[in-house]
Amino acid sequence: MVSFLIIISFLLHFITFIAIYMFFKQLQNVKTQDLNEIIALFDTYLQEVKAENNRLQQLLEDRNIKTDQTQTKQKEPETGEYEKSHDIPIPDDVGDTVVASLESRVLQLHNRDVPVDEIAKELNCGKTEAEIIIKLHEKMQ
Q1: Do 128 and 41 form a contact (C-beta atoms < 8 A)?
Q2: How far, in Å, are 19, 33, 59, 94 from residue 26 at the CA level?
Q3: Is there a contact between 127 and 120 (Cβ–Cβ < 8 Å)?
Q4: What is the chain's alpha carbon radius of gyration, rounded to the nearest angstrom?
Q5: How many CA atoms, within 13 angstroms, populate the side-chain half-sphere of residue 113?
Q6: How far apart are CA 83 and CA 79, in angstroms?
Q7: Is the distance from CB of 84 to CB of 93 less than 8 angstroms?
Q8: What is the DSSP letter of 86?
Q9: Cα–Cα distance, 44 to 38 (Å, whole number)
Q10: According to the model, what pLDDT value does residue 93 have?
Q11: Do residues 106 and 25 make contact, with C-beta atoms less than 8 angstroms apart?
């Protein structure tokens, strides 16, 4: 009788170890899926930022070409005249202002149930950027 109970105990321990191992593997798969999802989000965000940077760089190059053309047409003032004509007034009253970060503004609008497209339009940021902020905030909670 004792040997029968020992055999049942070993079988139950073996089944328990197998169950624990399977749960461990499942947990690892979930972690890698989450990691892959975050990596994919960052990749798309990076692609968007690169495209936006290229567009901005092209715009700046076009502006530089135009300003170079206009500067060659204008006569350069003497150094004394240049310093006098470009004095920068310093304001007497400087007020401190607090500006909320992009992340906090996105989350505020999201909490008001504003769609992601409208959040991106209102805050002048990319749709993917807003989605990443929202998803990362949800994962952190």
Answers
A1: yes
A2: 11, 11, 49, 58
A3: yes
A4: 31
A5: 0
A6: 6
A7: no
A8: T
A9: 10
A10: 67
A11: no
Task: Give the count of beta carbons closer than 10 Å to the beta carbon of residue 132.
Answer: 19
**Dihedral (CA of 43, 45, 48, 50) sign:** negative
DSSP-H helix ranges across the chain: 2-73, 79-85, 102-111, 116-123, 127-140
Chunked in runs of 10, what are the mean pLDDT values of the chain (141 residues)?
Answer: 93 96 94 89 90 89 79 59 59 71 91 92 89 87 76
User: Measured between alpha carbons, how far is 63 from 116 in angstroms, rounded to an integer?
Assistant: 32
Q: Is 94 left (phi over 0), alpha (psi -120 to 50) or beta?
A: beta
Measured CA to CA, the distance from residue 85 to residue 128 in angstroms comes to 45
Q: Which two tokens stand for residue 62?
A: 């076009």
Query: Is residue 95 a contact partner of residue 65, using CB atoms and an 8 Å limit?
Result: no
pLDDT at 77: 53
70-98 burial, b at 16+ Cβ within 10 Å, e below that, comes to: eeeeeeeeeeeeeeeeeeeeeeeeeeeee
